[in-house]
From TrEMBL:
Family: Belongs to the carbohydrate kinase PfkB family.
Keywords from the named record: Kinase, Transferase
Occurrences of domain Carbohydrate kinase PfkB (ranges): 3-280
One Pfam family linked to the record: PfkB
Gene3D superfamilies given in the database record: 3.40.1190.20
The keyword Kinase is assigned to this record: yes
This protein's name: Ribokinase
Keyword Kinase: yes
InterPro entries registered for this protein in UniProt: Carboh/pur_kinase_PfkB_CS, PfkB_dom, Ribo/fructo_kinase, Ribokinase-like
Length: 295
């Protein structure tokens, strides 16, 4: 069982031909409401890869929250630990995508996570691997502390967030896996290698940074910086690639795969997602990943 801790949001996605040069009314070619947020996205991606997933976080008792529970449950994610906070607003985004795939996002974070009750770590019993994002700090800190004590492998999805938050989380996570902007926030002014070194110095057993089409780099304490290129695929939509990567990596950790095999598995899963339009709901299943790895 993968336990995820963090953010769930409702994304209103509008596809348009071109961004207007100045604010105006622009007709959309296509509209879809989907669930978003790092922990929620990784949860859906992991279910598609065959994992049993429980999501821990908080949403409001509003319509957006109803939508999220419906959507995530229909995707196979266990939402029983997703708190419905009375009177709180769920996170909602307007995501506008042009014909070239460029994205503009307007986000209202809502106050559900800020007003959530403390995470009762008792509900993590049975967890084989934990993944946390930085959007629900008290929940992530409690869960990562629990995992360290319980000897359960843990993964931080280190996306762009306040430096102090990322530093506190990296000190508790076994694997601290950053996006490029997340690593820059974690270690401002540092090179990639120095950033990875800083994550290891703070206590992580493995530090990594995902680099989009340039693949991934990672390091263990005292070891060299290792890297893998991205799988050479025709990318049509990289939306959700990072979430699929984290989901796949968490599953590889649960299986105790060697570092390079784990990274290759995650890169293959993320590359398959990039080949298809749409979000994590269009992520690959495990057989597709194995097939790409065997090719
Ligand atoms: P995020 O979405 O969090 O910014 P990245 O863009 O770094 O994450 O992508 C995560 C992983 O997805 C990369 O490490 C890589 O393995 C894979 N990936 C991303 N873009 C591509 C691409 N164009 N082609 C193949 N793989 C990709």
């Amino acid at each position: 069982t993968l336990c995820t801790v963090g953010h769930a949001a409702l994304d209103h996605c509008f596809s348009i031909a071109d961004f207007p040069p100045a604010p105006t009314k622009t007709p959309a070619r296509h509209y879809q409401a989907i669930s978003g947020g790092m922990a929620a996205n990784a949860s859906i991606a992991a279910v598609r890869l065959g994992a049993t997933v429980r999501l821990h976080g908080a949403i409001g008792d509003d319509d957006a929250g109803d939508f999220l529970v419906r959507c995530l449950s229909a995707s196979g994610v266990d939402c029983r630990q997703l708190q419905r906070v009375a009177g709180a607003a769920s996170s909602v985004s307007a995501v506008v995508i042009d014909a070239r795939g460029e994205r503009q996002i307007f986000n209202h974070r809502g106050d559900a996570l800020a007003r959530a009750a403390a995470l009762d770590t008792g509900v993590l019993a049975g967890c084989d691997v934990l993944m946390a994002d930085p959007r629900w700090m008290p929940g992530a800190l409690a869960a990562l502390r629990w995992a360290r004590q319980a000897g359960v492998p843990s993964l931080l999805d280190g996306d762009l967030s306040p430096t102090e938050d990322l530093q506190a989380l990296a000190a508790l996570a076994d694997w601290a896996v950053f996006s490029e902007s997340g690593l820059a926030a974690f270690a401002p002014q540092a090179t990639l290698a120095d950033g990875l070194g800083a994550a290891l110095a703070s206590g992580a057993q493995l530090a990594a940074v995902t680099l989009g089409a340039r693949g991934v780099r990672w390091q263990r304490p005292g070891g060299p910086v290792r890297s893998l290129p991205a799988f050479p695929v025709q990318a049509v939509d990289t939306n959700g690639a990072g979430d699929v990567f984290h989901a796949a990596l968490a599953m590889a950790m649960a299986r105790s795969l060697p570092d390079e095999d784990a990274m290759r598995f995650a890169c293959a899963a993320a590359a398959l997602k990039c080949q298809r339009p749409g979000g994590v709901a269009h992520g690959p299943d495990c057989a597709e990943v194995e097939q790409l790895l065997a090719a």
